[in-house]
Design a protein that fits this description.
By secondary structure, the chain is of the alpha/beta class. The protein has three domains: 7-122, Rossmann fold, CATH 3.40.50; 142-367, Alpha-Beta Horseshoe (pyruvate-formate lyase- activating enzyme), CATH 3.80.30.20; 373-428, Nucleic acid-binding proteins (OB fold (Dihydrolipoamide Acetyltransferase, E2P)). Helices cover 32% and strands 24% of the residues. The strands form six sheets. Strands 2-1-3-4-5-6 form a six-stranded parallel β-sheet, sandwiched between helices. Strands 17-18-19-21-20 form a five-stranded mixed beta barrel. Helix 12 runs parallel beside helix 13 (344-367). The relative contact order is 0.08.
């Protein structure tokens, strides 16, 4: 049997918070002189950071674990761990033939020492964990920064409050220090994260307050945030967004359904009219607002007329983009107890109808950008050539001109490729 060395591989599934958590884990490993490798075959420690929000995400992880059986047989000394929400929701995963340990979302601070001690099983969590004073090691232009963890809202379909606990807001000084650390390491775009970010509150500082403070740090050229809940949008949020040049005029605001009846069953605590009122206020302050959303179809009890109301809402609100899913039952949630399930074939059929309506709106709104002028931050290389840019309203823009990553340019949108605007560089800002 080979001797274990300190090489680790981490694969991330799921949301932006999971990506941020993976950066925390990487930082903790690198502090202890571990080496980050790019394939499982090179690694002594294989870490899968998992998502439990939808059944599809869980199936992908199980498939990945099964694919590691051969490697584990050839190299039985390899340590394989499941991190994240599945480690909390599915403790029986410890019985999977390749799994050596489980690390729920609030256990990562103990992860390295646990492995050095060659322990197995479930790593204990700290329910108050904020990962204070762990500033991620990165040299990326764009980075995430968590300002809250957990959620206090028990939407009837959602597993998050059970896997990530109640909401905890980080102290402002710590957030500002981490922002400065990122900027000093080369970051130019920051996305503040929280399961319900507008619920941020720490000793008199609310979310618009911390957003404003972060925006004032020199070197932050783009500032975004995810994810908002419609019931928690503060009155002063949109003036702050409109009044600071580096805060993107971008809002991701999950709708979930256009039916008040279904919204009530989801325990969302707003109506479609409440939602539309929020959007009208946002667009009045920011006429070029980019608006995206999440929508679930086939929620238990959803009738055809409920679904029609969702289609009508999508046509009326005109989202720039929607993340659309068929409802996936999560064990332990209230909705899992509902006995009026929607048939799978109906869910799939409704999802395709919704996608068709949203795609038409997305195409129309994207093509309307042709001929416009935008200011973009170059954040990376585009997959099919050229440079990838982010506009002041959060739009992805491709430019084929000579551009430096981390710099800001004015571009003219002279072409649209699919749903992606292509811009010609006019000048550097």
């Amino acid at each position: 049997m080979e001797k274990l060395e300190n090489r680790f591989y981490i694969r991330t599934y799921g949301c932006q918070m999971n990506k941020y958590d993976s950066d925390i884990v990487k930082t903790l490993f690198l502090r202890e002189d571990f080496e980050d490798v790019s394939t499982p075959e090179e690694a002594d420690y294989i870490l899968l950071n998992t998502c439990a929000v939808r059944e599809h995400a869980e199936k992908r992880v199980i498939g990945r674990l099964n694919s590691l059986k051969g490697l584990k047989k050839r190299r039985p000394e390899i340590i394989v761990g499941v991190l994240g929400c599945m480690a909390k929701e599915l403790p029986d995963l410890i019985n999977h033939p390749v799994v050596d340990f489980l690390a729920p979302p609030d256990s990562y601070r103990n992860l390295v020492q646990w492995l050095k001690a060659r322990k197995r099983g479930l790593i204990p969590e700290d329910k108050n964990e904020q990962y204070s004073n762990i500033f991620i090691s990165t040299n990326k232009i764009s980075n995430y920064l968590s300002i809250t963890r957990g959620c206090n809202y028990f939407c009837s379909y959602c597993i998050v409050p059970y896997t990530r606990g109640s909401i905890r807001s980080r102290p402002p000084d710590e957030i500002l220090k981490e922002t400065e650390n990122l900027v000093n390491s080369g970051t130019r775009e920051i996305t503040l994260l929280g399961q319900n970010i507008n619920a941020y509150y720490y000793k008199g500082v609310d979310f618009p307050g911390i957003l404003k403070r972060v925006s004032k740090i020199k070197g932050v050229k783009r500032l975004n945030f995810l994810t908002s809940h419609p019931k928690d949008i503060p009155d002063n949020l949109f003036p702050v967004m409109a009044g600071h040049k580096n805060i993107t005029n971008y809002l991701h605001l999950p709708l979930q359904s256009g039916s008040d009846r279904i919204l009530s069953r989801m325990n969302r605590d707003y109506t479609i009219q409440n939602y539309i009122s929020i959007i009208n206020r946002a667009r009045k302050m920011m006429p070029n607002l980019t608006l995206t959303t999440d929508i679930l179809v086939g929620f238990p009890g959803e009738k055809e007329e409920d679904f029609i109301e969702t289609l009508q809402a999508v046509r009326k609100i005109r989202f720039d983009q929607s993340y659309m899913f068929a409802y996936s039952e999560r064990k332990g949630t209230l909705a899992a107890l509902f006995n009026d399930k929607v048939e799978e074939k109906i869910k799939k059929e409704r999802l395709q109808r919704l996608i068709k309506v949203q795609n038409k709106v997305t195409e129309e709104k994207t093509r309307a950008l042709k001929g416009s002028e935008m200011e973009i931050l170059i954040v990376g290389e585009a997959k099919k050539g050229g440079k990838l840019g982010k506009s002041r309203n959060g739009r992805i823009i491709i430019t084929n001109g000579v551009a430096k990553i981390g710099s800001v340019y004015i571009v003219n949108i002279n072409k649209v490729n699919g749903w992606v605007p292509i811009g010609k560089i006019k000048k550097e800002v």
